Amino acid sequence: MSEEVKNTAEAAEAAEAVKAEPVGAGEATAKEYTVEDIQKEIKPLSGNAFVRFWQKIWRWWLGVWYGFADKHPKGSSLIYKIFFLVVFSEGVTIWQFIVMTFLPYAFTGAFPQVSVGWPNVPMGSFTNNGATYVIFGDANGWGYFLAFEIAVFTAQCINFPLQRNITYRSHGNPYMQAMWYFIGWVLVSVFTNAVWGVCNVFFTHWGWYLKGAEGLATIAGLIKTVLTGGVSIVIFFFIFLVIFPDNNKMAKSSKAAYDKLVANNAPTDKLVKAENKMKLWEDKAAKSNAESEYFKAKSQVNAAVMKYNALVKASNNEKLTAEQKAEYPAKIDAAFETAVNAINAKYEKEAAFNAVSAA
Predict the structure, then answer these.
(1) In this model, does residue 181 exceed pLDDT 80?
(2) pLDDT at residue 331 tops 80
(3) Using H for helix, E for strand and C for coil, what is the string for the chain?
């Protein structure tokens, strides 16, 4: 605990430690909180000034974000998904480019560096310079094409768990989702390769792959990575909506379908099937909501304790007048109580999250 916090510990404790009931493992336990208790709830700031600066910005941003999310749940959900979708997708695109820059050299001796591909369709006058339209292949040989496919495949192996666990926080069957993701990736790859085939004709015609034009070949590889990656982001956004559906929407729609069957006196087998589906999505929605609420509660504890610390620090300003100093004890007490309430809420959300996770 910093000296500034210690100097005002008496001011906070003068009103007596607030009694609260943090919940853990399904049991409520009365506890008297002290300044040290609430300080332990947040990770201490780094001693490095640069790291500490970014830690403060990050904690401030979390408070702003969760405040916005409370007021605009639908808008914040969409922004959250698009942001991480783009960040992760562009991140693996960088990985693709790095792999494509170096991996082709590993296949130099195994494959001849001649233009190969399928369906290898002549492109009129462009063919005079060796330019043909291909979907599978590369102007520099099968080694370059194999390197590209390895780069893209490994990028998707990185992208899938990031999108599933962070962007969409899905609780669906990971094996089924991976299967559909793989199918989607194959179809998207065929489409993006077909688009790239058109660009490749022009680059080949312009001599970008000729000996001595290594710089242009690298630029072509960058364009290929960005083009196919950018197109993939747009397509995968819609694929992800199918693979990782919104659990709350699915729970709501499955309940509506079940209620409709009940109202229409549907056969028992259909009712049982619909009820099981409804319960499945309600369970997934409960897990997602509990997880989201728990993470938000932890952030709110950080924000509350940081506000308390800021008031403590401000109260020690020697430039304050006596009247201004007199206002701080009440503010500090209120901030302390807010922090305690946030801590209790965090314990409750944690217990709820653990309960649904164990179910």
Answers:
(1) yes
(2) yes
(3) CCHHHHHCHHHHHCCCCCEECCEECCEECCEECCHHHHHHCCCCCCCCHHHHHHHHHHHHHHHHHHHHHHHCHHHHHHHHHHHHHHHHHHHHHHHHHHHHHHHHHHHCCCCCCCCEEECCEECHHHHHHCCEECCEEECCCHHHHHHHHHHHHHHHHHHHHHHHHHHCCCCCCHHHHHHHHHHHHHHHHHHHHHHHHHHHHHHHHCCCCCCCCHHHHHHHHHHHHHHHHHHHHHHHHHHHHHHCCCHHHHHHHHHHHHHHHHHCCCCHHHHHHHHHHHHHHHHHHHHHHHHHHHHHHHHHHHHHHHHHHHHHHHHCCCCCCHHHHHHHHHHHHHHHHHHHHHHHHHHHHHHHHHHHHHC
